[in-house]
Amino acid sequence: MPGHPDGLQREPVYSLLDDVVREHLLWYLSVVDRTTTREFAERVVTWQRETAVDLGVKTPRSVIIQLVHNHLPRLDEYDVVDYDRSRNTVTSGANFDALEPYVSDLELPVDPESADC
Predict the structure, then answer these.
(1) Span between the terminal Cα atoms of the chain, in Å
(2) Helix 96-103 to helix 20-32 angle, to the nearest 10 degrees?
């Protein structure tokens, strides 16, 4: 098991990874470095439509609501992401590297060259 920075212990790591949308967001950030809530929400809905994986979302709006009210504040609290509410942008935070090894092996359909970064 990879080591964790002093500020991020085992329980928060497991808790933060215990949601498929957060897991996909972290994987996506490991590929593109920066995203917006809208861009990521549209990609989640596309991934769900193109694969057999049920992420439990129906529209980009429902993903954005989950991100803004649940996932991003939680990840930002542990400094895993930096979430700029005024611009709706998300980048990796100081503790991102603690979680990146757990999501790096996910295989999701994304073309980093086409991402708006």
Answers:
(1) 31
(2) 100
* pLDDT at residue 49, rounded to an integer: 80
Is the pLDDT higher at 6 or at 25? 25
Q: In this structure, is the dihedral angle defined by the CA atoms of residues 61, 91, 83 and 16, taken in order, positive or negative?
A: positive
Q: Per residue in 68-110, pLDDT tens?
A: 999 999 999 999 999 999 999 999 999 998 888 888 777 665 5
- Domain definitions of the chain by residue range: 10-99
- Contact partners, residue 82, CB within 8 Å, separation at least 6: 76, 90, 91, 92, 93
The reply to whether CATH 1.25.40 applies to domain 10-99 is: no
pLDDT tens for residues 10-60?
888 888 888 888 988 999 999 898 999 999 999 888 888 887 677 777 889
The DSSP-derived string for 72-108 is HHHHHHTTSEEEETTTTEEEE-TTHHHHHHHHTT---
Length of the chain: 117
